[in-house]
Amino acid sequence: MKVLVIGGGGREHAIVWKLSQSKHVDKIYCCPGNAGIAEIAECIDVRQDDFQALLDFVKYEWVDMTIVGPEDPLSKGIVDLFEKEGRRILGPTKAAAQLESSKVFSKDLMRSHGIPTADYKVFTSYLHAEEYVKMKGAPIVIKADGLAAGKGVFIASTVAEAMDALKIIMKDRAFGEAGDRVLVEDCLQGEEASFMAFTDGKSIVPMVSSQDHKRIFDDDKGLNTGGMGAYSPAPVVTPELEKIVMEKVMKPTIRALKAEGITYKGILYAGLMIDSNGTPNVLEFNCRLGDPETQPVLSRLDTDLMDIAMAIADEKLADIEVAWKSDPAVCIVISSGGYPGTYRKGDAITGIAEANALEGVHVFHAGTSFREDEVVTSGGRVLGVTAIGSDIAEARNRAYEAAEKIHFEGMHYRKDIASRALNRQTT
Ligand code: AMP
Ligand code: GLY
Hints:
single chain; 4 domains; 22 strands; Dna Ligase, domain 1; alpha+beta; D-amino Acid Aminotransferase, Chain A, domain 1; binds glycine; 25% strand; five-stranded parallel beta sheet; Rossmann fold; binds adenosine monophosphate
């Protein structure tokens, strides 16, 4: 079978790597891909946002399955177009992807169907939002409704910070239309976890749990990023909690969408805040795999990913067994100096082969490209050094040992990835 993967980050490298082990797959295309993906797939020269050109490519090359990595094509309806033309594609339709593309849609759905989430109010008027924030006080959370590349969420610890956030979204219109509506949300405390599941709209199969590290610096300091590292499993997600999340969040969400006339197929990702009593609340939904959570999670997947993708497309997920390795995995993201602000590009990267040669290690590329034969940096998050081990400590040591072999000018990585999981295990 032939498969096309859309995207070019660490998540997509992990997807392509997993597909390259499939007994069904004999050709992988990727759009746009990166330097690491290019070793195992053919990177195609089609624009990622030109859905018609992608569809034409799929028809011309007889591609059997398309797997969409990022949220953008999903929220713009790539799945609707492909399905209309009878092409197999993994991901939710535009209507279903609103779960991620509109925070108001997602919160309203949760509220009307009793899915646990922080209390909130929606505003289109700056004055009304300001009044409400003054009445509620801080800490408080301000969110732009639409997609803002992870930058539209402000955790305000003072009322003044909350006002600034309202101004940035509603007056300066920093996120354009994505800020037409603003959510003002109660601030939740606890530990975060990423809970992802496969679903064909009828059955829902949980993946192993994971946790990412959003801030740029150690001890969760500095600006928010796309994710500076991740590990799986997240010890906070006990087997009991997994059951609760499935019964109170995941299944009710699929049912709630059904009740609104929307079938959700693909990957459902719930960002959870788990309080000190072990009660989960949904922070957000994503309609895709997490990045970098996918790197450790897919490293632990035993089942053929193509079998899962086919089962979802054909609505036969209940017929297959999804199996995981018990060994934990850890991913350390190496970023370019300056990220998440402006950063350098075009620096030569060395040591990837040496890192890959270590036991249990796989280096997933994100922002990399070729300059002649040399691999160079081309993005903010550059590599996801991922390792599996017999316990979290071994996985983590292997990943850090591998990261030390890699070098490029200005590189940065956090030194405390998975330390919380480690402390939990040893205390
Ligand atoms: P979101 O894109 O909605 O997940 O928000 C991004 C990040 O902001 C989350 O991963 C949390 O760290 C934080 N966050 C979002 N909503 C809340 C909330 N209601 N209370 C506390 N933290 C939040
Ligand atoms: N790592 C968080 C996300 O993929 O949204």
